[in-house]
Amino acid sequence: MKNLKIYFTSDMHGFVYPTDYTNNDDKHLGMLNVINSFTKDENTLIIDGGDTIQGSPFTTFISKKDFEVHPIGKVLNQGKYDFVTLGNHDFNYGYDYLAKYLNTLDATCVCANVEDKTGKLPILPYAIKTLGNGLKIGILGFTTDFINIWEQPQNLTNFNINDTYTSVKKVFDEVRSQVDILLGVYHGGFEKDLDTEKILSTSNENIAYKICEDFNFDILLTGHQHMDIGGQYINGTYIVQTPQNAFRFIELNLEYEEKIISIKSELKTAEINPNKEMFNELLPYEKEVQKWLDSPVGFLDIPLNPSTHIEMALSGSNLANFINRIQLDASDADIACTSFANSIKGFNTDVTVRDIVSTYVYPNTLVVYEVTGEILKKALSRSAEYFYYDGKEVRISDSFLKPKVEHYNYDYFSNIEYTFTLNSNGRNSVDSVKFNGKEISDNDKFTLVMNNYRASGAGGYEFFKDCKIIKEIQIEMPEIIINYFEKHKKVIVDKTKYIHVKLNK
Questions:
Q1: What's the pTM?
Q2: Are residues 143 and 164 in contact, defined by beta-carbon separation less than 8 angstroms?
Q3: What CATH number should be reported for the domain whose range is 296-504?
C-alpha cells in the first residue's frame, strides 16, 4: 500500500500574520499559523491554488516597497510548498511584483493557460513528481480566463491568458499517460450546484464541473469561490475547496495499490501557533503596517457602521453614499455606483487608514462610462435581481449566495432617485429612475463612474463593455479615499435616500 498526503491552501489573499486587521486580536487565520500545521515527509505534497499575494493590508503596504526577495514567497518556502498555481488577483500589482514572487519560490508554478511572453518566468503547464514510495504524481495547474476581463491591461502586457478548457485539453493526455495519479489545481470554482446540479452560471468564469465531466482527474483542487468543500466526488473526480484568508486548509490522505483505494480529506482550522522564524523575520514589515493602519486621515460628522447586507440594500446606505460621493469628486461624473465586499468594517467618526483598507479591500481603480438611460436601467435591473420576495418577506436571492457569496455584485447608486418593485412572482422591476428630479428616457446620456471590476462587465453587467469610456482614473480606491480626506478633513456625509422599494404580492 502506498500513501499520498496533500496539504492544500487557496485564496490566502496575503494574510500572513494571525490577524484580520480589524483589530489587534490574534485570530485562527494567516499563513504563519497554517504552515506550522503541516507535517511533511517524502510522500507529502503541499500545494497552493492562487490569489496569494494580494488582498490584505500587509500586501497593500508591501506592494509599495522595493524588494527583490518577496516576503510571501519566503513564507511559502518556510512552509515547504511544492507547487502553486496563479489566481486572478495575483496579477493585480503587475508583472514585476508577480515576477519577484515567482522567482522567490522554491515551489514550482504550474498554470497551463498562463503564457509569459518574455519567457523569463518559471511557469510550467504541469509537473510530474515521484514520491519516496515510487508513486508518480502529475500536477496540472490552470486558472480562470476571466483574468482577461477583470485585470487592468497594463498588468497583462507580458502575458497571454488563454482559454482555460482548451489549455487543459491540450496537455491532459500527455501528462495523464505518464503518471499514477493526476491532480488538477484550478483557480476557479463550480458553475453547477454540487447537490442539485442546477446550472448557476453560463459564463466561463468557473468551469470546474465541466472539467470533472470531461476529464478524468483523480483529484481536483479548486479555489476562487471561497467555498468550504471538505471533499466529495463529482463524476469520479474527488474535489475540495477552501475558504479565504488562510482561515482553513485541506489535509487529504490517499491510499494506492495498483489503483486508488481510498481518499479521505477534511478542512482544518489552523491553531494560533505562528511560525516563529518567519514571524520574527517579517515583523519589521508588520510593525510598519500596523503603524500605517492606525494613522488618522480625517473625520466624519456621523459614524458609518454597516448593518446587514439585506437591510442596506433595501433601505440605502450612508456608507455607500460616502464612497459614491468620493467617486463623483474624483471623476466629475453625473452618477456613481459602488458595491460592498462580503465583509465590511465601516468607519467611526475618527477615520484611520485601517478603517479604509478594511472597508475597501480591493485595489480597484475607476472608470467613467457614457451610458444611455436604457443602459442605466439595465444596470439597475441587474441589481434588483439581488432580492427575492415570496409575498411575506424579502431575502437575498440564491443567485447571489450560491455557489459563491457575491454581495459585491449588488450596486448602490448615487445622484439618481430610483424605485424597485419586488414581485412575489420572482420578476422584479425598475419602475422609476429620476435624474435632477426628472424621469429619464432611454435615449438620455449620462456619465457613470464605477470601479474597474464592474466596468469589465463582471457580475452580470456585460452591457457596460459596449459603452464609450470617457476617462480612466488609474489610482487605487483606498488611495483615492485617503486623498479625499486630505482635501476634506471634516466630511459631511451624504444622507440622501436614493433607493425606494415597493412590495407587490
A1: 0.80
A2: yes
A3: 3.90.780.10
